[in-house]
User: Which sequence fits this backbone?
């Protein structure tokens, strides 16, 4: 009997890390519209490749035909339709596109097709949700906070930031209103608001700001206080706010010398070369998940800290490792039949089972992505 077959849709930096990791155990094919990253995957890792445009239902159906599992690693603006097309093709999928649309709108279709969809299967959202899901299943959780950021090791003026995702997806973080829960009520604030300075070992002081990272947790969790904040080097938020308030992130077309353009497209074209990590440049990922709760009549605080760096051994970016290996851990759970809940599944559903939670932590640790936990009595 041959190896089970997995197809990875999207060959960006994270999609490639996913394909390489899964190829150690499964028969993997990578699909992308771009030829260059595919040829590199095939040449350096022997992974099967297919060049295809994934923007149509027909092309997606053709790409996923004959595979046991699909991995979605396309840009966010393509994510929702890609997941929908994979469901229509009757295939299970683990997705990391972090699309803006409500995934539960696809729940009825997924149930009709009897397929399992795990979305937001990255680091945050992703592993942060898995951790909360585990505790929420056994503890009366009263507060959840996630602080997370991916940053370059070398700080370069003016933005002191490098991106591994598509530029439009990064800019979306800076303009999408941030939702969080306080005293049981939903609060909506502008992105980049409520900045705070926070100290992290091995990193130093970083600046946190409101971002819309709770996503599905707003529907699946009944916790009085929940918030996620993004981390950057201190001072960089002010540059982003100036650009946003000046209209550079706007999706509304403006007239420039008789031509209609969206300012966000121009901004992405100008900024992404500055944000792109050059070969050999290193990054790190830092995350702190804090959960307050009551167990056995006593109050505790659980703190999960992650500090991960670029791997020189495998030449893999930290954000690709922390995002990609969470995805591949969940993919392995599904391929081994340990998680097969029909319908739309945010990562908190995966973390509810103790064995699944431990499986994912162990899987990550074997790849050098280690979460250190502290338990404090209150």
Assistant:
């Amino acid at each position: 009997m041959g190896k089970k077959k997995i197809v990875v849709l999207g060959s960006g930096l994270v999609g490639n890390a996913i394909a390489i990791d899964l190829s150690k155990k499964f028969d993997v094919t990578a699909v992308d519209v771009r030829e260059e990253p595919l040829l590199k995957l095939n040449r350096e890792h022997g992974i099967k490749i297919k060049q295809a445009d994934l923007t149509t239902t027909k092309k997606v159906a053709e790409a996923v035909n004959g595979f046991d599992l699909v991995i979605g690693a396309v840009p966010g603006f393509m994510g929702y339709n890609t997941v929908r097309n994979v469901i229509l093709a009757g295939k299970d999928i683990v997705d990391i596109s972090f699309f803006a649309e409500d995934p539960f709108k696809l729940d009825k279709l997924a149930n009709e097709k009897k397929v399992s969809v795990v979305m937001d299967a990255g680091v945050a959202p992703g592993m942060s949700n898995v951790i909360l899901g585990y505790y929420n299943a056994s503890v009366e959780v009263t507060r959840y906070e996630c602080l997370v950021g991916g940053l370059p090791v070398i700080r370069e003026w003016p933005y002191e930031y490098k991106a591994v995702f598509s530029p439009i997806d990064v800019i979306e973080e800076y303009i999408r209103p941030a939702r969080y829960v306080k005293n049981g009520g939903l609060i909506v604030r502008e992105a980049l608001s409520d900045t705070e300075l926070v100290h992290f070992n091995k990193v130093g002081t970083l600046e946190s700001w409101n971002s819309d990272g709770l996503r599905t947790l707003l529907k699946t969790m009944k916790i009085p206080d929940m918030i996620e904040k993004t981390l950057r080097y201190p001072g960089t938020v002010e540059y982003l706010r100036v650009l946003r308030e000046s209209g550079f992130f706007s999706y509304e077309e403006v007239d420039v010398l008789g031509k209609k353009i969206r300012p966000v497209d121009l901004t992405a074209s100008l900024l992404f070369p500055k944000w792109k990590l050059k070969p050999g440049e290193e990054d790190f990922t830092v995350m702190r998940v804090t959960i307050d709760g009551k167990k056995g009549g006593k109050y505790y605080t659980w703190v999960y800290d992650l500090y991960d760096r670029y791997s020189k051994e495998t030449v893999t970016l930290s954000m690709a490792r922390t995002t990609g290996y969470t995805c591949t851990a969940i993919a392995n759970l599904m391929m081994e039949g340990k998680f097969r809940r029909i319908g739309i599944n945010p990562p908190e559903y995966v973390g509810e089972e103790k064995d699944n939670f431990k499986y994912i932590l162990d899987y990550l640790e074997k790849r050098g992505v280690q979460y250190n936990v502290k338990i404090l009595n209150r």
Notes: The longest helix spans residues 318-335.
